[in-house]
Specification:
- It is built from four helices and five strands, in the order H-H-H-H-E-E-E-E-E.
- The chain is α+β, with helices and mostly antiparallel strands.
- Strand 3 and strand 4 form a beta hairpin.
- The protein is flat.
Length: about 150
Amino acid sequence: MKKMIRKMTLAGLLFTLSLTMTGCFGAFQLTRNVYQWNETVTPNKFAQTLLFYGMNVVPVYGVATFLDFFVFNLVEFWSGTNPIAMAEGEHETQLVYMDGKWYEMEASKNQFVVSEVNDDTAKLLYTIKFDENTHRFLVKDKQLAD
């Protein structure tokens, strides 16, 4: 009898969750990017399939889907933009106050820049760029901005 109550409670919880999460359906852009990267690694469809299986065993797809579902799609739902699905020319800037300092974070397609802002000067801390040719992230740090 206890098992039946647990199963009914779990089913009710999952049903309620499915009703409340319907508004958060987003682009799942991170998962799509992983899939598109898998397609570009090799033209051989058998190698792509083996890589796909390997990336499911290692849980690359699982982690990407988890992050899309619980982070990026919720950000997209509440802010109206998905930080991973930015189009060319789009950018978003946010100011953050932390530990007595102001930081500016600017996101654009394939680039994320973090700067420390003090009075009228800005000190560039990090620039993270995604190189579409090599499919790698390039990080530059601790450079002074103009």
